[in-house]
Design goal:
The structure holds 2 protein chains of 2 kinds. By secondary structure, chain A is α/β, with parallel strands linked by helices. Chain A has 2 domains: about 140 residues, Aspartate Aminotransferase, domain 1, CATH 3.90.1150.10; about 260 residues, Type I PLP-dependent aspartate aminotransferase-like (Major domain) (Aspartate Aminotransferase, domain 2, 3-Layer(aba) Sandwich), CATH 3.40.640. Helix content of chain A is about 40%, strand content about 15%. In chain A, strand 5, helix 5 and strand 6 form a beta-alpha-beta unit. The termini of chain A are far apart. By secondary structure, chain B is α+β, with helices and mostly antiparallel strands. Chain B has a single domain, classed as Sufe protein. Chain: A (Alpha-Beta Complex). Chain B is built from 5 helices and 3 strands. Chain B has a 3-stranded antiparallel β-sheet, covered by helices on one side. Classes of the chains: A alpha/beta, B alpha+beta. At the A-B interface, helix 12 and helix 14 of A face helix 1 of B.
């Protein structure tokens, strides 16, 4: 039998104050790290230095334990069974929705469970396309992940066949990897129906001015969709404050399980939006000739949902709330500033994105002169350092930056300055080898 | 704070960046565009940006000259450098039979599934170029 430690108690944020701020900060990451079993593992007798949280985060034991408990104690299909076990599973599933809604300041029935950001955005592209007319346009940015680009691009391509000719426009980025807001004002006009932007770039780390974009979109009667896959794990998200109409994120980047994600939508909009997938659980009444559909969110959740995923994700959210999103942001900003400083002072390294840690998250892309990103990633792996090398599912952005790919080190709350130090040392070693 | 990482080298089997690979990467052989050739083919892997353009000049039934242009990771570039060396003088009939194992033997390393595409890029360029060349010749006849 597995013996599990009791849940780790976090110290109150007050303890971060005082004269030993740096030391306390260092302890923050160390303390969080203790909750993540995989980070205790050693690879070839070296500690695992995980710097790929933008791809997927590691999971705290609290989440792993919640999944185990669900499968061992109350697994049953939801919304159907009258028996007590099914009722318990249904309550837990709906309670998970409540916890996640509260986490982003939404209402419970404004939360749709999907399998991830990609499905959330596909759902939107499909369902919103029904409302588009000839000559409408959709505005994206040059820094979108393929998941917030390809669905809209294909929608537009499809619309040409229907004679609708939907245009997709891309807001340009500036030299230091920010959105060119002047160009945004040119792109968004009265024919714009949808503006869909990433909250935090998965390549540049840039945090985009979502509030400003929301006002701009709304001035022209367009909807604002936010891809929050990268931002949700690192900062407080309040959909009302952001002023967005839809917001998508994935569970697996938020310390939760894979295969679960969220689409938030304003309730008035969800009420009007047609379903994406048809089947069981999403209907009101079915006859041979026709069907009527359930209200949101059920209308968008056809088939047996990912119950364990939702419960696990809610546990991850509770875990984050216990730590405090503000504390996480504060810690990560200092870590990001440190990493940027260390990389910028090295020779032969080009760092992409805003140079100022306050304008960005801890996603740091860089190239090393004379060494291909895949070679860098492979060399760092030998020292137990996990970084990503490649195009990061943003091929068009790579074209804008004029590179085939980059190395990406992405930070999370469980990383420490020591991790950064080891990264720097390993880069030195790689440079020496290739010199 | 410790920032020490081990300086020790990997075992012979583990080391994919052996001196021969790095040497071919730093000083590629046959990296030039010839004035004329019998066939050429550009192979590109958009996923990692590796690019190899292979040139082959035949003389009778043998390869007279072979060269390449390209950019990308050490594995893709070193394997192109080695492959162009290897096929010089080779009977055309043997080119088609060049297989994955031959390239791996040439590199002298074992490569994981993710990097295999890098290593095989120049071989793919050779096979596709040859196929096109054979096809064109068949049409002419």
């Amino acid at each position: 039998m597995m013996i599990l430690d009791p849940p780790h108690q976090h110290h109150s944020p007050q303890e971060h104050d005082g004269e030993h701020k740096d030391e306390k900060h260092e302890e923050f990451g160390e303390r969080i790290r203790q909750d993540f079993p995989i980070l205790q593992a050693r690879v070839k007798n070296k500690p695992l230095i995980y710097l790929d949280s933008a791809a997927t985060s590691q999971k705290p034991r609290q989440v792993i334990e919640a999944l185990k408990k669900y499968y061992e104690e109350y697994n049953a299909n939801v919304h159907r069974g009258i028996y007590a076990l099914s009722e318990k599973a249904t309550m837990a599933y709906e309670h998970a929705r409540f916890i996640i809604a509260r986490f982003i300041n939404a209402e419970q029935h404004e939360i749709i469970f999907t399998k991830g950001t990609t499905e959330s955005l596909n759902l939107l592209a499909y369902s919103l396309s029904k409302q588009l007319k000839k000559g409408d346009n959709i505005v994206l940015t040059q820094m979108e992940h393929h998941s917030n680009l390809v669905p809209w691009q294909q929608l537009a391509k499809e619309s040409k066949r229907d004679g609708k000719d939907i245009e997709v426009r891309f807001i340009k980025i500036t030299g230091d990897g920010r959105l060119d807001m002047g160009h945004a004002r040119q792109c968004i006009d009265d024919s714009t129906k949808i503006v869909s932007v990433t909250h935090m770039s998965n390549v540049l780390g840039t945090i985009n001015p979502v509030q400003e974009l929301a006002s701009l979109a709304h001035e022209h009667g367009a909807l604002l969709v936010v891809d929050a896959a990268q931002s949700v794990p690192h900062m407080k998200i309040d959909v009302k404050e952001l002023g967005c109409d839809f917001l998508a994120f994935s569970g697996h980047k938020l310390f939760g399980p894979t295969g679960i994600g969220v689409l938030y939508g304003r309730k008035e909009l969800l009420a009007k939006l047609p379903p994406f997938l048809y089947g069981g659980d999403m209907i009101h009444e079915v006859r041979f000739e026709d069907s009527t559909f359930a209200d949101a969110p059920n209308k968008f959740e056809a088939g047996t949902p990912n119950m364990a995923g939702a419960i696990g994700l809610a546990k991850a959210v509770e875990y984050l709330q216990q730590i405090g999103m503000e504390n996480i942001t504060e810690y990560e900003q200092e870590l990001t500033a440190y990493a940027l400083h260390r990389l910028q002072e090295m020779e032969g390294i080009t760092v992409y994105g805003p140079p100022d840690a306050a304008a960005r998250g801890g996603v740091i892309s860089f190239t090393i002169a004379g060494i291909h990103p895949h070679d860098v990633a492979q060399l760092l792996d030998r020292d137990g350092i996990c970084v990503r090398g490649g195009h990061h599912c943003a091929m068009p952005l790579m074209g804008v930056l004029g590179i085939a790919g980059s190395v990406r080190a992405s930070l999370s709350m469980y990383n420490t300055k020591e991790d950064i130090g080891l990264l720097i040392a390993a880069i030195h070693k790689a440079q020496k080898m290739f010199s | 704070m410790k920032e020490q990482i081990s300086e020790g080298s990997l075992s012979e089997e583990e080391e994919i960046y052996r001196e021969n690979i790095l040497d071919h990467y730093r000083n590629p052989r046959n990296k030039e565009k010839p004035e004329s050739c019998s066939f050429q083919h550009l192979e590109h892997n958009p996923v990692c940006g590796d690019r190899i353009e292979l040139f082959v000049k035949l003389s009778g039934s043998r390869v007279e000259e072979s060269s390449f242009l390209g950019e990308g990771c050490a594995i893709s570039q070193a394997s192109a450098s080695m492959l162009t060396d290897k096929i010089k003088g080779m009977p055309v009939s043997e080119l088609q039979d060049m297989a994955k194992e031959d390239v791996l033997d040439m590199l002298g390393i074992s490569i994981g599934i993710v990097r295999l595409k890098c290593a095989m890029l120049s071989l793919k360029a050779l096979h596709k170029g040859l196929e096109q060349y054979t096809e064109n010749n068949r049409k002419k006849q």
